[in-house]
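User: Reviewer 2 asked us to show a designed sequence for the structure in our supplementary figure. I'm pasting the structure tokens here. Could you produce the per-position amino acids so we can include them in the response letter?
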């Protein structure tokens, strides 16, 4: 069965920014994962903001989308109630919109893993109790 990987902002930024301390790790992981990596618009927005000072960073992210290496596979308006519940449940963490979307994507794709640098995903649970499969350094 194909391993479906959801992409968080941290590894995407690390891949684009050669000065990022996780750049080599991100490149290695990226080369071992079958494409496309699924993500949401909130992750793309966050990533583009974080690479705004990296020469060619935003263009690099958009290029990966255009080439189909990354695919936006989530409609926030279709999952708004569940996203709101997740953000309320984890408000003490707090949970970002991007993180909530990825957790919901993991719920909708049971055999998936999330490629992330964010240790908050060790706290988050699918369906309130199930740990999320993660790819982390």
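Assistant: Here is a per-position design you can include in the supplement:
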């Amino acid at each position: 069965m194909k391993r479906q990987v959801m992409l968080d902002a941290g590894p995407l930024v690390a891949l684009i920014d050669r000065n990022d301390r996780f750049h080599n790790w991100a490149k290695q992981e990226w080369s071992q994962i079958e494409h496309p990596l699924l993500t949401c618009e909130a992750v793309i927005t966050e990533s583009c903001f974080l690479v705004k000072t990296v020469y060619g960073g935003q263009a690099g992210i958009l290029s990966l989308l255009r080439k189909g290496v990354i695919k936006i596979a989530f409609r926030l308006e279709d999952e708004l109630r569940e996203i709101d519940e997740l953000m309320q449940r984890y408000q003490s963490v707090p949970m970002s919109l991007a993180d909530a979307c990825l957790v919901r994507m993991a719920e909708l794709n049971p055999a998936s893993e999330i490629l992330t640098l964010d240790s908050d995903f060790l706290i988050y649970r699918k369906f309130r109790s199930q740990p999320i499969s993660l790819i982390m350094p």
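For the response letter, you might also mention the following. The helical segments are 9-16, 23-32, 41-50, 57-66, 80-89, 97-108. The two ends are 24 Å apart (CA to CA).
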